[in-house]
C-alpha cells in the first residue's frame, strides 16, 4: 500500500517537472476548461455525491457533517466560479524577489518558483478538491490530494473531471493526483513521501493536526487555532470598541478569526462593560471577578475559558490594570493568530503591535479581517499560525518557493 | 528530564519576549561584550576544552573529530571576531516587506520580526555555540542550543561567558540557553518543545537528520546533502568549463557545494574529457562507457556513484546526448542544492535555469560560490535544501519571520 502511494507520488513529481515548463496562459486555460467541464458534467458529480450522502446518513453521521458533504447544482457552480476566479488572479511565479551583483561580477537573483508537489490532506468537504486543485495549478504546483473516506465518491468524480479537462488543453492529467485509498495507513504513508512531496498542508481539525505532528516526515504548514483577543485600552473610543467586539464575536462565531476574549483596561471597565454586555445579546459572557461586579449576568471564567477557542456565541472578559497586563495575558493564552487593540493613543498602539507576537496584530479593526480574501489575496489555502515559510493568511504566494539564479563569466572561487 | 527541558524552553520563551523589545544597538553591544569577554577569559574556555579533548582521546575518538573539537587561542579569537563581524551586519528586524491599502481603508503592512526561539542541535564543534548565539542574538532571537556530549565542557564554558556578557549590558542571560543534558532522551525531548521552539536547525550528519525526521514535532529547516552537477553544454567555452570543474571539485572537496558529477554533451566530449582528466590530477574519475573510451583511466561508475555526495577527490562523469538528458539526470540524482551549466548559448542557459529544480542554478560559475558569505550575507547558519521557509544559503534574514500589522479606524466586517 505504501508502494502504491509512492507510485502516485512519482507520478505527481513527474508532472511537476512538466508544469514547471508551462506558461501562465496554459495553466489559466486549464482552470477555465476545468470550470466548464465541472458545470457541464455536474450530474456526474451530484450522482457520486448522493452516494456519499446516503452512506453518511446510513452510517449515522451528524447532520452538520452531512451538510458540509452535500453538494447541489449551486455548490458545483460555486466550485467552477472559484476556478475561474483563481484563473483571473496574477501569477506569482517568475517574480524576481531581489537581485544584486557581487564584487567578483557574479549576478545573483532570487526568483519565485512553484514548490513542485503540494500535498493537501482534508476532511469531508468535496469542494476542497477543486479549490485546492485550482490554487495549486495556478501557482504551477501539482495538487497531490488525500480526502476522507466519507467524500471519496465525490472526490473521485471531481478529480476525474478536472484531470480530463487538463488533458484537453495538453497539460498532464497528473497535475492533480488523488489518493483513492482512504485508509489510515494510506494517510500515514502519504505524510511520509519525502521524495515526492514538497509541502503538506492539512485542512482539518485537531486529530488530523495531531496525526501530522506524530507521523509526517515531509515539510508541512499548519493552519492552527485562533484564540483571538481584543484589548480595549484606557484611551479607546468606547463606541468603536463596542462595535469591534460585537463584530468580532457575532459576525461569524465559528471561524478562526472570530474574537474569543476581551481584555478591558480598568480605567474604562465601568463605563464600557455594561454597554458591551447589553450590545452582546445572545452571547454568553464569562469573566473575572471585576467583570462580574460590572456585569452580574456573566459567569465565572475558568482557566480553560481563557485558553479556549470557543467558536461559539461565548466570550471571555477580563479587566486588566495595564497594557502590559494585556500583552502578558495574550502571550500566555493566545494562539498567535490575530490580536487587536482599540485605542487612540499612538504609543499604546505602537507598543501593542511591537510586543504582541501573532500572525496579525490589528489597531482599531475587527479581528474578522484576517483572512486571504479580506487581505486582497483573491484566494486562500488556509491561515498559518506557525512562523516558518508562511505566517497568517496563505494565498498563491505562499504556494511558491524561491530559486537563486547565479550568472557569471567563468568565475572560480579562490 | 523532559520536564527539565520544558523548563529551559520556558526560560527561552520568556527571554524572547524581552529581546523583542530591544534595539539593534543593545543587541550589538551584547555581541561586542561577548567577544571581549571570550577573549579575556580564553583560558577558561581552553581549560574546559582540554578536558573535552582528553576525554575524547581516552575514548578513542577519531583524530579528525578530535581536531574539530580542539580549540586554541587563535580559534577562540576567531570566535570573538565572528561575533564582532555579526554585530557589524545590518539588522534584518523591522524591514517592511510590503504594504498596501484595502478598499475599506485598512492599511496592511508586513514587517520582518524575529522568529522568537531558534533551537540548534549540533555535533562536536564548540565554535557553533558562539556562532549560533551571535546570529540568533543579532536577529532578535533566543538561541536554544543543544550540543553533543563530546564538547559539553567547552560549550558550557563558552555559553557561560556569553550569558555573563549579555547580563553586563542588561540583556537577559537567557538570550542563550544551553541544554547541558546530552542524553539521547534529552535530544528527543528538545525536538518536541512545540510550546517554546519556533524553529529548529540541525547542524550535523545523516544520523542527526534521521533523528529529526523521526522525532521532531517542532518546525525545522534541514541543511541537506549537496550532490552538485556541472553540465558542459555543446556550446560551452571548454577552457572555462575545465576551470570551473577543477575549481568545483578540488578547491575544497569536503563541503556541500563541491562539484560531484560532470555531464558532458556528446558533441564536445572528445575534445573536452581528455583535457579535463589531465587537469584533474589526483582526482579519481568514474564514468559511463563513453567517458571510459575517452579517458581509459576512469573507473566504471555505478548507480551509487551518480547518487552520492563523495565529499572527496572523486568525480563521476557522464556523456549525455542533449540538454534534456542532462536536466533529466539532475532531476533523478541531484539533491536540489546547486547545479551549474557552462555554455555560451543563451537559450540553453535559460532552459537550464528554468527547468532544473535546485536551491541555486548557476551559469558559467563554480558551484563553490553557493554559500552565505559568497552571496554577500555576511554570515551563514546553513544551506537549506528544502523548499519551505528558506532555500539555499541561510543568513540573518532566514532567522526571521513576518507579522501583519493592520491599522484601521474602526472598520467592521459586513
Characterize the structure shown.
Chain A is built from 16 helices and 16 strands. Chain A is of the alpha/beta class. The first copy, chain A, has two domains: 2-222 and 393-405, 3-Layer(aba) Sandwich (Aldehyde Dehydrogenase, Chain A, domain 1); 228-373, Aldehyde Dehydrogenase, Chain A, domain 2, CATH 3.40.309. A seven-stranded parallel sheet of chain A has the order 10-9-11-8-7-12-13, with helices on both faces. In chain A, strands 5-4-3-6 form a four-stranded parallel sheet, sandwiched between helices. In chain A, α7 links the parallel β4 and β5 (176-178). In chain A, α5 (73-88) runs parallel beside α6 (127-138). The longest helix of chain A is centred in the first third of the chain and has 18 residues, at 2-19. Chain A is globular and about 70 Å long. At the A-B interface, α10, α15, β13 and β16 of A face α10, α15, β13 and β16 of B. Chains A, B: It comes from Iamia majanohamensis. Chains A, B: This is Gamma-glutamyl phosphate reductase. Chains A, B: Its EC number is 1.2.1.41. Chains A, B: It is found in: Cytoplasm. Chains A, B: It is an enzyme of class 1 (oxidoreductase).
Amino acid at each position: 500500500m505504501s508502494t502504491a502511494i509512492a507510485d502516485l507520488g512519482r507520478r505527481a513529481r513527474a508532472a511537476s517537472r512538466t508544469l514547471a515548463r508551462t506558461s501562465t496562459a496554459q495553466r489559466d486555460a486549464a482552470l477555465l476548461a476545468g470550470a466548464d467541464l465541472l458545470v457541464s458534467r455536474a450530474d456526474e458529480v451530484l450522482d457520486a455525491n448522493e452516494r456519499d450522502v446516503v452512506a453518511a446518513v446510513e452510517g449515522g453521521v451528524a447532520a452538520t457533517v452531512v451538510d458540509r458533504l452535500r453538494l447541489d447544482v449551486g455548490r458545483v457552480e460555486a466550485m467552477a466560479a472559484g476556478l475561474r476566479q483563481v484563473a483571473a488572479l496574477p501569477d506569482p511565479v517568475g517574480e524576481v524577489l531581489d537581485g544584486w551583483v557581487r564584487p567578483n561580477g557574479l549576478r545573483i537573483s532570487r526568483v519565485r518558483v512553484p514548490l513542485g508537489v503540494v500535498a493537501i490532506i482534508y476532511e469531508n468537504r468535496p469542494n476542497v478538491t477543486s479549490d485546492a486543485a485550482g490554487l495549486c495549478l495556478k501557482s504551477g504546483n501539482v495538487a497531490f490530494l488525500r480526502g476522507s473516506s466519507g467524500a471519496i465518491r465525490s472526490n473521485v468524480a471531481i478529480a476525474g473531471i478536472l484531470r480530463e479537462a487538463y488533458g484537453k488543453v495538453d497539460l498532464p492529467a497528473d497535475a492533480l493526483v488523488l489518493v483513492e485509498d482512504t485508509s489510515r495507513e494510506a494517510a500515514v504513508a502519504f505524510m511520509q513521501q519525502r521524495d515526492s512531496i514538497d509541502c503538506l498542508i492539512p485542512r482539518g481539525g485537531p486529530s488530523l493536526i495531531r496525526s501530522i505532528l506524530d507521523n509526517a516526515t515531509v515539510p508541512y504548514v499548519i493552519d492552527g487555532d485562533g484564540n483571538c483577543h481584543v484589548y480595549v485600552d484606557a484611551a479607546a473610543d468606547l463606541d468603536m470598541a463596542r462595535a469591534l467586539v460585537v463584530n468580532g464575536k457575532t459576525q461569524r462565531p465559528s471561524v478562526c478569526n472570530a474574537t474569543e476574549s476581551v481584555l478591558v483596561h480598568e480605567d474604562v471597565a465601568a463605563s464600557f462593560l455594561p454597554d458591551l454586555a447589553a450590545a452582546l445579546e445572545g452571547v454568553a459572557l464569562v469573566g473575572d471577578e471585576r467583570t462580574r461586579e460590572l456585569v452580574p449576568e456573566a459567569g465565572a471564567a475558568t482557566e480553560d475559558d481563557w485558553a479556549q477557542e470557543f467558536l461559539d456565541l461565548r466570550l471571555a472578559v477580563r479587566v486588566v490594570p495595564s497594557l502590559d497586563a494585556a500583552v502578558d495575558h495574550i502571550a500566555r493564552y493566545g494562539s498567535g493568530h490575530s490580536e487587536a487593540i482599540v485605542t487612540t493613543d499612538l504609543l499604546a498602539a505602537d507598543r501593542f503591535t511591537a510586543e504582541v507576537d501573532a500572525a496579525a496584530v490589528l489597531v482599531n479593526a475587527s479581528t474578522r479581517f484576517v483572512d486571504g480574501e479580506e487581505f486582497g489575496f483573491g484566494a486562500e489555502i488556509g491561515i498559518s499560525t506557525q512562523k516558518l515559510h508562511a505566517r497568517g493568511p496563505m494565498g498563491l504566494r505562499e504556494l511558491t518557493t524561491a530559486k537563486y539564479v547565479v550568472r557569471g563569466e567563468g568565475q572560480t572561487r579562490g
